[in-house]
Design a protein that fits this description.
It is a single chain. The protein has one domain: Vaccinia Virus protein VP39 (Rossmann fold), CATH 3.40.50. It is about 30% helix and about 30% strand. It has 6 helices and 7 strands. A 7-stranded mixed β-sheet has the order 3-2-1-4-5-7-6. Helix 5 crosses helix 6. The longest helix is centred in the N-terminal third of the chain and has 17 residues. It is globular and about 50 Å long. Bound molecules: S-adenosylmethionine.
Length: about 220
């Protein structure tokens, strides 16, 4: 069963998929988040990874050279089509895509060494629940790496953008969700700061990266 939030997000991201990569803000942010993950997590070339809410793969494609295989997953078939076209054009063999909504469907088969996500959590109502699901999908010793907005006043998105469930997150709350799910070595740091004009003022929106390891 798909609820309204997911329907809104699927429709919105399907519609904007073809233009997603045209934004320098998005590509700069993705580069910084990928670099932050590569710095915080001891990536290994035998690892099997899953990206959740991957969009067009702006983060995943940067981490792919450090991994054995990457399963790119998203609610939006339109975003995944753009990603699959880029992967095919580049001749990439160690990447696959799948429509996946863990809020309504069970996890895919297999266990992962790394699960990462960039700017998808604020679209998901029960983030603590999805963190518990990520934990269950990891091998012992596997890592989670989650990037999203710090708590903000609701001005990051335009008021007419549907499907936004959280105006960012308090880092200590996210760390608490990771620890409650069973993760060890939990920490957060700033991965990037988005600067955009709102109401005639230049505003700063920091993006955190939270990481943890399944014992
Ligand atoms: C802001 S975009 C970020 C895309 C990409 N991670 C990036 O950094 O460029 C959020 C993505 O999360 C996906 N998404 C939203 N809700 C989701 C859900 N319940 N399950 C999986 N993906 C979801 C959207 O389809 C969209 O591709």
């Amino acid at each position: 069963m798909t609820n309204t939030v997911q329907s809104e997000n699927r429709a919105r991201f399907d519609t904007i998929a073809a233009q997603w990569d045209e934004s320098p803000m998005r590509t700069n942010m993705a580069r910084a988040i990928a670099d932050a993950i590569a710095t915080a997590v001891p990536l290994a070339s035998h690892w099997r990874a899953l990206e959740y809410g991957c969009g067009t793969g702006l983060v995943g494609l940067r981490l792919l050279p450090h991994l054995a295989h990457l399963l790119e997953t998203d609610l939006s078939p339109g975003m995944l089509t753009v990603l699959a076209e880029k992967a095919q054009a580049a001749g990439l063999a160690n990447i696959s895509t799948a429509v996946l909504d863990l809020t309504t469907s069970p996890p895919p088969d297999g266990q992962f060494d790394l699960i990462f996500s960039s700017m998808a959590l604020h679209h998901i109502t029960d983030v603590a629940g999805i963190v518990r699901t990520f934990f269950s999908m990891l091998v012992p010793g596997g890592w989670v790496a989650l990037a999203d907005l710090d708590a903000e006043d609701g001005t990051f998105h335009s008021p007419d953008v549907p499907g936004v469930e959280h105006h960012g997150f308090d880092r200590k709350t996210v760390e608490g969700w990771l620890r409650a799910a069973g993760f060890a070595d939990v920490s957060t740091r700033t991965a990037y700061t988005v600067e955009r004009e709102r109401d005639g003022k230049q505003r700063r929106y920091p993006i955190f990266l939270a990481t943890g390891r399944r014992p």
